[in-house]
Write a structure and sequence with these properties.
CATH superfamily of the domain at 111-317: MetI-like
Strand content: under 5%
CATH class of the domain at 111-317: Mainly Alpha
Number of helices: 14
Subcellular location: Cell membrane
Family: Belongs to the binding-protein-dependent transport system permease family.
Shape: globular
InterPro entries: BPD_transp_1_N, MetI-like, MetI-like_sf
CATH topology of the domain at 111-317: MetI-like fold
Order of helices and strands: HHHHHHHHHHHHHH
Structural class: mainly alpha
Membrane topology: Multi-pass membrane protein
Distance between the termini: 40 Å
Pfam families: BPD_transp_1, BPD_transp_1_N
CATH architecture of the domain at 111-317: Orthogonal Bundle
Length: about 350
């Protein structure tokens, strides 16, 4: 039989365990509530935008020559005669089911249209982000360690070029030189017509699908189409990532712990990668995530120049055609992308830096 002291210790240990679990539980609940509130706020914003724009959804569907009877019938069918709060409740329910209505251009559901074009943009932006990160992060680190060296000057020139040169001009020049003159890359589009019948789409990412089929000729053709637009997009991401990484590293290299580590005899690059870069990793991840989000929603000009059937091009065409269902759906998708990337960043922060847990 346990004595009173043992019972008191067990009770206090249990209380401490509960006190440690409660902040985690409430912290998780707070995060979920914040996430839900962000999505609801985004949905409210797109709802208001859809109501304020000077485009009549009924006339956009029926045309200007519609009769008054047809207009009134469709107006009631769309629920536009109901109070705004009721319309917003129906709108939230539709959004929760990924129902954005039908596209006025194709007549198909907007969700199906987005699912059709989004993989093309995601594949392009992901490859561009990989190129920009793999080159940009080491370039920024080396430029910070060897300030005012040749590497530092190259990093600055690339940053200036990435910030100032328009993507559409780089795309046109790339097509003229690398495609028309030298033949090093393939032309506009995602794939040559002669290879379309050999591609069996599984994921929607042509490079992945070609690799899954072990069809390396098809893979080479797809890669020849994507490498030039991805490299042009990667230049802007590389400029931002290398510049910010250099700035973060310079700030840390001037701290006292670096001087102390050098005085203890530690090698330069061991200090740089083991100590300094770990302290800036959280900031670099934030920069990479923001760059990736902007590539996903901001590749309109590149997709237009290269006839890339992607998300940005679809959204632009929908806006120019007054297809508000598609515009609102695309806006919601962009917002969700930013929210999810912030979520991923928060999770990575906890893995990399224990102080944020």
């Amino acid at each position: 039989m346990a004595d009173a002291g043992t019972l008191d210790k067990s009770a206090s240990a249990g209380a401490r365990g509960r006190s440690l679990r409660l902040p985690r539980i409430f912290g998780g609940a707070k995060f979920l509530l914040s996430f839900a509130a962000t999505l609801i706020g985004l949905a409210a914003l797109t709802f208001i935008i859809g109501r304020l724009l000077p485009i009549d959804p009924v006339l956009a569907i029926l045309g200007d020559n519609a009769t008054q009877e047809a207009y009134d019938a469709l107006y009631q069918k769309l629920g536009l005669d109901q109070p705004l709060l009721v319309q917003f409740a129906h709108y939230l329910w539709d959004v929760a089911r990924f129902d954005f209505g039908n596209s006025l251009i194709s007549g198909r559901p907007v969700s199906d249209e987005i699912a059709r074009v989004f993989p093309a943009t995601m594949e392009l932006a992901t490859l561009a982000m990989l190129i920009g990160t793999v080159i940009g992060v080491p370039l920024g680190v080396i430029a910070a360690v060897y300030r005012n060296s040749i590497v530092d000057h190259v990093a600055r020139i690339l940053s200036l070029l990435g910030y100032s040169a328009p993507n559409f001009w780089l795309g046109l020049m790339g097509l003229v030189l690398l495609y028309a003159q030298l033949g090093w890359v393939n032309g506009p589009g995602r794939i040559d017509f002669t290879w379309e019948f050999e591609l069996h789409q599984v994921t929607g990412f042509f490079l992945v699908d070609a690799a899954l089929q072990h069809n390396w000729g098809l893979f080479k053709n797809v890669f020849g189409h994507i490498i030039l637009p991805a490299s042009i997009l990667a230049l802007s991401a590389l400029a931002y990532i290398s510049r910010m990484t250099r700035s973060f590293m310079i700030d840390q290299l001037e701290q006292e712990y670096v001087i102390s580590a050098r005085a203890k005899g530690l090698g330069l690059w061991r200090i740089v990668w083991t100590h300094v870069f770990r302290n800036v990793a959280v900031q670099v991840i934030t920069v990479i995530a923001l760059s990736y989000a902007y590539l996903l929603e901001g590749a309109v000009l590149t997709e237009t120049v290269f006839a890339w059937p992607g998300f940005g091009r679809f959204m632009t065409n929908s806006l120019l055609s007054g297809d508000m269902n598609a515009v609102v759906g695309c806006t919601l998708v962009i917002g969700v992308i930013f929210v999810l990337l912030n979520l991923v960043c928060d999770l990575l922060y906890r893995v990399i830096d224990p102080r944020t847990r």
